[in-house]
Amino acid sequence: MSTATHPDQPADAALDALLDERALSKLRWRCRRGLLENDLFIERFFARYESGLTVRQADALGLLMDLADNDLLDLLLGRKAPQDDLARDDVTRVLGMLRATRQSA
Question: H/E element holding 71?
Answer without folding.
Answer: helix 69-76
